[in-house]
Specification:
Strand content: 35-45%
Number of helices: 4
Structural class: mainly beta
Radius of gyration: 31 Å
Shape: elongated
Helix content: under 10%
Length: about 550
């Protein structure tokens, strides 16, 4: 056997050698670009204005034999790649100034040729006050105004339209963050420094190694990804050209100055833009908007402050165990701790199951509570346990160790509902979803708060992914205090909402454990589904 294996290996190596000798990977003919020709047109040039109309704009057109791309390197510290060879550049330094422009023509395999020329252009635009406010005259740090509503948001990029709420376009009409809504992400890690040296404004973004990306740019959902943002970017100012408007009310809402960042610079949230219109700026607060390059109908809004984010309020140390069920006694669940919701009717979400208290749907066995959704002919049965009128509480730490269901259409949930729901109609009573899961999206879990200030259907929500959600136990946890509601999985914080007296999270709630089928969240049920269980090892509450 050993000799056979040796012979097989020898033959395999020989075949590899033959294949390597026969294959030929080449670029074909590699010709250095030649006959590089650069032409430029100064915008607004006339006999009376030989250096332009004051816009500072020059249109460049480059062409060369054997070139597949071009790069412009400007002596003001900016660069631009142009596959076509055409680029319109705005030189923003006020007055009459000369600049060196180096053009690199790139061919196959990266071979290049280049030429340098000098251009002279007049720019009449300046905003010395904005520069002073941005930099403080030397250097100034800016942070997300995370304590403000709408510090990040998106709205229509259409100047003369007024939405149903009477908002003009300079407002995030489609979506606006709550205060501290993104505390569980890397967004607020950003420290943005504007500095001034020899009349040149530079920008540095310290993102602590991760940047919060728009989901349309990467990943499908807004999320944090590693990104190296080291190095200074040059910031040039130009007049606003995002649109032309005759609406005097609109016109008063923008400063009319645009910041242009060199080399892909951006202001903390990555949605593809490198230019931001300053809507307003003071010594300690700045509001900007940027048009999304991949969807010019949208404008993203950012609000920044010079006040560093306050140290996070220490989370209350809830250590006193006030409720516990470790499901160590086989049989039906402890009736002193758990009751049931029974029946059908969709439960407000077009769900398809009928809730029962049958041992076929809910039982304690082998140290775990098992809530089982089953297909019964053309219908489905399941169970929904609750601690209503048995254990209700205000503030604390809830921990539930659970293994989730399998199968598209299953919708297990671990959640809490305001005890006054009968007289204070949902969502006014408040709802805290510690964990929700769709069987159609294995390993993705959701944490959500529902209350009147947000869309009841969507809620204030976030999601994260974990490994083996349906085959291994994980610990789902919330820490609920007078100042915040934080949601964790395996001690990883992935959603946080600031709490205050305006929200319905300052009164008694009770616990609910259930597995729903289908509905507005669970989605289409797999026709092959027969049954699946959510298993719970323990439920503990600390105060």
């Amino acid at each position: 056997m050993k000799k056979i294996i040796t012979n097989i290996l020898s033959l395999f190596v020989l075949l590899l050698m033959v294949n390597c000798q026969e294959d030929s990977f080449t670029f074909g003919s590699i010709d250095t670009p030649s006959s590089l020709e650069v032409n430029f047109e100064i915008v607004g040039k006339t006999d009376l204005a030989p250096n332009g109309d004051g816009s500072g704009k020059i249109k460049f057109t480059s062409k060369a034999s054997n070139a597949i791309s071009y790069k412009y390197v400007f002596s003001d510290g900016t660069t631009e790649n142009s596959p076509s060879g055409y680029f319109e550049k705005r030189f923003s330094k006020p007055g009459l100034n000369s600049y060196n422009v180096t053009v690199l023509a790139t061919g196959k395999a990266g071979v290049t040729t280049n030429t340098t020329l000098e251009v002279t252009v007049f720019s009449s635009f300046k905003d010395d006050e904005a520069v002073q406010l941005l930099t403080g005259g030397t250097s100034k740090k800016w942070y997300w105004a995370q304590d403000e509503l709408a510090h990040l948001g998106v709205g229509q990029n259409s100047p003369d339209q007024i939405d149903v709420n009477g908002h003009l376009n300079y407002y995030p009409t489609y979506y606006a963050t709550q205060a501290n809504e993104k505390a569980s992400t890397c967004l607020y890690n950003s420290v943005m420094t504007f500095s001034l040296n020899n009349e040149e404004v530079k920008f540095n973004l310290d993102n602590k190694g991760q940047t919060y990306y728009n989901g349309a740019i990467k990943g499908g959902d807004d999320n944090c990804y590693d990104l190296n943002t080291s190095g200074d970017k040059v910031v040039t100012l130009s007049p606003s050209e995002s649109f032309v408007t005759t609406n005097p009310d609109s016109a008063t809402q923008t400063r009319g100055t645009v910041m242009n960042f060199s080399d892909g610079g951006f202001m903390g949230y990555f949605f593809g833009a490198n230019s931001y219109e300053i809507l307003s700026i003071t010594e300690n607060r700045m509001v900007v908007r940027g048009v999304m390059p991949s969807n010019p109908a949208l404008a993203w809004y950012h609000t920044f402050t010079t006040t560093p984010p306050s140290q996070a309020v220490p989370v209350a140390d809830y250590t006193k165990l006030v409720f516990s069920d470790e499901f160590n006694t086989d049989g039906t669940p402890d009736p002193t701790k758990w009751g049931y919701d029974l029946g059908a009717g969709g439960w407000g979400n077009s769900e398809e199951q009928t809730y029962t208290n049958s041992v076929n749907n809910v039982i304690v066995a082998g140290g775990n509570l098992k809530i089982t959704a089953k297909k019964e002919g053309a219908t489905y049965t399941s169970a929904r346990l609750k601690s209503e009128n048995k254990f209700e509480f205000t503030y604390g730490k809830v921990e539930v160790k659970a293994k989730l269901t399998t199968g598209a259409g299953t919708w297990p949930a671990i959640w809490m509902l305001g005890q006054d729901y009968a007289t204070n109609t949902w969502p006014a009573c408040g709802e805290i979803d510690i964990m929700e899961f769709k069987g159609s999206e294995p390993n993705k879990i959701h944490g959500t708060l529902h209350y009147p200030a947000v869309s009841p259907g969507a809620g204030n929500t976030n999601s994260t992914t974990i490994a083996n959600a349906s085959s291994e136990f994980h610990i789902y946890k919330t820490i609920w205090s007078p100042t915040s509601v934080q949601i964790f999985v395996d001690d990883k914080l992935y959603h946080s909402v600031a709490n205050d007296s305006s929200l319905p999270f300052n009164k008694d709630f009770f616990l609910i454990l259930n597995v729903a089928m289908g509905g507005t969240f669970g989605g289409a049920i797999d026709p092959a589904f027969t049954q699946s269980s959510m298993e719970i090892d323990y439920v503990k509450v600390y105060q």
